[in-house]
Amino acid sequence: MRPILNSYSGGLARERRPEVTHAGRQQGFSLIELLIVVAIIGIIAAIAIPNLLASRRAANEASAVQGLRIISSAEAVYHTTSDGTYADLQTLKNAAMLETWIADATTPGVARSGYIFNITNPTVVNYVSGAAPAYPRSGTRNFSGDSTGVIYSNAATPGTAPTTTSGSPIGN
Question: What is the value of pTM for the model shown?
Fold first, then answer.
């Protein structure tokens, strides 16, 4: 073999021989390895997705309870500052005592956090506010409240807000 001049090292270098590879041997993952990885990802997803949905339902229900508390506060202020009566959602909105996201969430198409709201029969003595999931996946409970400020929960009837206070009182 004849030495050649290597311009990089400034000295002599040997000729390079091509590397010998094993014929038919390819680099990469086998089908079994890929199937195992896909199965593991599927198991993790099967565990995580129901927990994610349950967390979302709990957040929707907490938002609905907070909405009823806001309605209760608005009704108390309206009752004190007006002619001594309670009002419906639009009257409270027009009096700037209720936020738009609650007052306008009366149908499933405009529901906020998956819940719809209503106020039934506001009178001088009492009112009933209600929140119901707009869709079955939004929540599992209806909520209702009245002038006492106590909020109750019942099993959900999606799309129909309660018109009476009944059920179990929740952490008031």
Answer: 0.72
